[in-house]
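Sync notes, pocket subgroup
Present: LS, DG
LS reminded everyone that the earlier model was apo-only. Rerun requested with 2-O-methyl-1,6-di-O-phosphono-D-mannitol included. Inputs:
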Amino acid sequence: MTTSTVTTPLHATARELVGTGRGILAADESISTMSKRLEGAGVAPTGTNRRDYRELLVTTPGLADGASGVILCDETLRQSLTDGRPFPVACAELGILPGIKVDTGAKPLAGAPDETVTEGLDGLDDRLAEYAEMGARFAKWRAVLTISGTTPTRWAQAANAHALARYARSCQEAGLVPVVEPEVLMDGAHSLSECASITESTLLSVTRALTAAGVDPAGMVLKPNMVLPGAECPQQSSPAQVARATVEVLRCAVSPRLAGVAFLSGGQSPETATANLAALQELDVSWPLTFSFGRALVSPALEAWGGDPDHVADGQAALAHHVDANAAVLRDDRSSERTG
Ligand code: 5MM
């Protein structure tokens, strides 16, 4: 699977996700995370309200102009819009590739106090087959690494890389594009260079595991953190510094054949995430660099909606504003897609 240069349906889907001057909307919060966020906005955490909120997001007018795909969670993928269309069907009709989060969360890792390994491999092949049947075109799995005096340990990096690689290979065999998300959190007071060094060793470990698993880089998307100083670091960095540090790490740690890189926002404000994404476009790299933001896109929309049916349009306007702002800074690689 690794050496073919033939363009496959997986390559085409991956390029549609990341090579069309658009990005990915991450709306795959687990039931517990989404419930907490709804409660924070004064909305009751019911299945109906989670559904209404995701319907608001995916039916935002013009969303497909800036968003190539949307990541949903299992609950939403099985729900329907008020007009009766199942979410994956409606997304496809709206011009947005439906994706599905398939991990079952970060759980304590034996042998590594305070660290986690992301689980969800048990029964994964059967779930992927079902999701593909329901219309999902890509999948996502997130590993979480923390920077402290003692972490991440090599063991936590290796365990998470191994799981990401097994997940990615299973996705490709099921005909789904894997979005591989190893997130080094921005929590802490570490410097930009510490984040660079930890992100590099994390990505090298992921790349080695993907290669060992025979994952085709041209049929996958990498979803990493940008290289940033910790949120509590007194010395913050400019977008140009963040972009340079991020690209240096990517150049040494990931395959030049990746379909593309779609960054998570990781707790940055919407404005900072967009400014950093814009600075990244200025650098010469072999992959499209785009966004797969969650909070940096949806937080303003949730706040504007607040669970009030009369404010659906306000929520949609807030989402459209941030999706458009990010899409506007992207390079459009559609010409390379056409010439193949
Ligand atoms: C949307 O949040 C996703 C799911 O989180 P939980 O499973 O913990 O509820 C999360 O994986 C998200 O897709 C990424 O972290 C990117 O989101 P941000 O907000 O960092 O851009």
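DG: Residues 334-340 have pLDDT under 50 and may be disordered.
LS: The chain has one domain: 9-332.
Action: DG to write up.
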